[in-house]
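Quick start: read one record
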Amino acid sequence: MTRVSVVIPTYDRAAELPRAIESVLNQTHQELELLVVDDGSTDGTQSLLDSISDSRLRVITHETNRGANVARNTGIDHAEGECLAFLDSDDEWERTKLDRQLTRYDSGPEDCVAVYCDFEMEVGGLSGRVLSAVAGVLAMADGDRPKAGRDMLVGEILADHLHSGAGSTLLVETAVAREIGGFDEELDWFQDPDFLLRVVQEGFVGYVDEPLVSRHETGSPPAAVAARADEQFLAKHASLVEAAEENGYRVRAAHALLMAKLYLAEGKFETAADHLAAAHVPPRHVPGVLWSGATGIRNSAVSARPD
């Protein structure tokens, strides 16, 4: 059996896709298959894929665009590997990414089902490492692994403290990905934390304290779309939200802050104010709120200019 099946969903990213593919095929761990799911691209992606000569590459094509979650699930259905790893088509991996995660997986407890890592986020030509907020929790869980360790990990995910970037960082057992039903095709956002939350319920999730992925900012959905997805996400995990808030996590307040920033950036200040009223704004988030507000003012000024 192949050790790892790598799934790259892609749609009209012929310019960025070669970088992602190369970062997979150049991994120091070579026992892999690469499944690229072309989700109805119209920009020459198919010709690009046809030009790549590597026996590890398999291309699966959707005739029409069906969305990234559906494309990921198509990859899960076709995977032949013991484990799955996901990569967004505009991101890239360090060469040792799979080796480092497999080492952690193999050395983990018997119920280890997945491993994630830190990543570098690149925005506007600038990059910075995104650190795990729960390294200490996972280190504690490596010992006696008290139930609180898993509960704390869930709380960190729900409260938006942990940004795992599961769509590009996660290595997970294929059987587990299938058991939990893959990615939620009804969610237009929050698909990564939703998937990770469900993985956490299946067993231990390990962590590699290294930035093994470079992620490239592609923007957020419209605020109204994000708000609908937020309501779906919180309702779907209502029992976990309640438990996390009982443990001191301000889950709903954190999500209200996130929505407020999106509405501020769009210049929808009244709606943003409603969300801010329900939000918890730690000092470290104040610059982000101010930046979002300034962006909204600038965008409003531009849209108000006469043609």
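Residues 286-304 form the longest helix (19 residues).
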